[in-house]
Amino acid sequence: MALISPSRRVRRTMFSDGVEAAGVKAYTVYNHMLLPTVFESVQDDYHHLKEAVQVWDVACERQVELRGPDAARLMQMLTPRDLRGMLPGRCFYVPIVDETGGMLNDPVAVKLAEDRWWISIADSDLMLWVKGIANGYRLDVLIDEPDVSPLAIQGPKADDLMARVFGDAVRDIRFFRFGMFDFQGRSLAVARSGYSKQGGFEIYVDGADIGMPLWNALFEAGRDLDVRAGCPNLIERVEGGLLSYGNDMTDDNTPHECGLGRFCDTQTAIGCIGRDALLRVAKEGPTKQVRALELHGGPVPPCERVWDIEANGKRVGQVTSAAYSPDFKTNVAIGMVRMTHWDSGTEVQVRTTDGMRDAVVREDFWL
Amino acid sequence: MALISPSRRVRRTMFSDGVEAAGVKAYTVYNHMLLPTVFESVQDDYHHLKEAVQVWDVACERQVELRGPDAARLMQMLTPRDLRGMLPGRCFYVPIVDETGGMLNDPVAVKLAEDRWWISIADSDLMLWVKGIANGYRLDVLIDEPDVSPLAIQGPKADDLMARVFGDAVRDIRFFRFGMFDFQGRSLAVARSGYSKQGGFEIYVDGADIGMPLWNALFEAGRDLDVRAGCPNLIERVEGGLLSYGNDMTDDNTPHECGLGRFCDTQTAIGCIGRDALLRVAKEGPTKQVRALELHGGPVPPCERVWDIEANGKRVGQVTSAAYSPDFKTNVAIGMVRMTHWDSGTEVQVRTTDGMRDAVVREDFWL
Hints:
The structure is a homodimer.
Chain A: E1 3-4, H1 16-21, E2 26-30, E3 33-38, H2 42-51, E4 54-57, E5 63-67, H3 71-78, E6 91-93, E7 96-97, E8 103-105, E9 108-113, E10 116-120, H4 126-136, E11 142-144, E12 148-154, H5 158-166, E13 178-183, E14 186-191, E15 200-206, H6 211-221, E16 228-230, H7 234-240, H8 275-284, E17 288-295, E18 307-311, E19 314-325, E20 330-338, E21 347-352, E22 355-361
Parallel strand pairs in A: 4-16
Antiparallel strand pairs in A: 2-3, 4-12, 5-10, 5-11, 6-9, 7-8, 9-10, 12-15, 13-14, 14-15, 17-20, 17-22, 18-19, 18-21, 19-20, 21-22
């Protein structure tokens, strides 16, 4: 692996000092920002995440803030998920689509108030699309990237750690809800959410000045819980079927292809810019879809590009994320498979960087 | 420095195999794509660039293609530069601004025909803004990222190398013009342009299948010219005052603050979305502006975050790019300085990562 060059353009976060002190070994770049990818090793980080609790610098999940009388209208224009029943205090996972129904991002929308929303984005400059739409439709809304950086607390001991810092009331936060909690006199949104299947929270840290104080408080409070710095873990997320925008889907894909049809209320999401295109897709169904795949043989190399899925010498899909799973003792993978070969149990071959592998399409991820 | 993790999301380019074979040591990520930053060392690459010729994988300068009857109208909506006199076959450096006059990108616009343009972008997902505007204003235009990847040939021997592969006619291409040249039966746009002050070309390689054949042909033809794989060089670009979007300017800045006022014809660029805001700026002038700065003392550390510029203990600006220049035997830097301190010869202090440095504002970059 090569090194990553420092520059201001690849932004540090309010937690970078802590991440460096914890001995980060590798990064990726996400929304023009550093996102740690390895501390001990991907395998060690994985085991620890499933056993204890980790603090993750996910500041790169930048917020796009919508504020003003047209905020709710604009939010509905962006997504085929029907937002009419959504109350303040809720988080919704929302596919964001363009006029052709192509995925532009798959963020979590946080409804702070009727006229104030945060879109906690995956890796694309979604703010540019949102600003372009608001400008073109002359909407009465302010759009901004506030100084708010998520810090994730993930792992089976996340509740215990969080309770020590924010009080026992955090235990009562329900999945994809958030509450306002006090830290050093600042009121922070704390949601039960996060990019792992191990449970935990995301704290929307509002103001860079309390970033490191909060980081340090969590490590201080969690010493006997074996709290460590961590990051979204490739193996764990593939096992759990957590998709990654840019890896497992791009603007080429509809939400239905990504298996996100259940988040599309295309009939009732009136105003959604991609609605016409998606009504067609919803009716006919996608011709390819995300699937879990198991790749036989020893550990696969890093999936740094699309790997073709083949059957009888013909291309029938592609693998976009893959890793060897120590717990399941096999290679776990996420791919997009044509309908002719997407039934579970279908035997296919995958052209990895290191050569052909036999593989099988699975019913489910490793849950 | 930490490592960079491989993933499909951080896209490889059509030249990555060549870059790896050439022994790339470090990357940055630019438009969700790998951009090499170091081969031998930043210093060795710098000396070689000024003496010989290099082939640069700048595929990350992605193209946003506009096609259709409203393409020219849309292009003018994006920029305060007056495009009415621009003929097909020309390249224009164009600031792109939002409705407040904030810089969204500083690309090169390539006019292929009246109804067909490429915007060769710096590091932001400009396509999202362009698509949002086109959608909101219901323009009759197709917007797309074609499979076109620039390959730059830079250095004093660039003309010689290019003539061997494309014929002597390439020598006649004038600055910021392009012509169509044949390679293996494919017609490619070749422009006299590039992100260095050493002269050279950018080839818009249309189709991934000829990426490596062209790469190999250039290395084959240039063996006795000491052709090497290279990349935009930090030292050389700072010496030359070549700004970097995301480093030296962001959407916080107007073109005038970036010293790009000469590319703004705000009076006549009718239709430009940021025109109202920029008319005000053009009239009153900016209150801060990009400047060359010299930082005294030994080599500075990497400028991986904004360094405050201070005078009498007050913040009067920020340095955003800096490097030690072997040729000029001093630290060269780019910063944004308030008008109270932007006159050449003004003594200031810069708070680098390693401590305070005395510095002076210069009249010009090191040309």
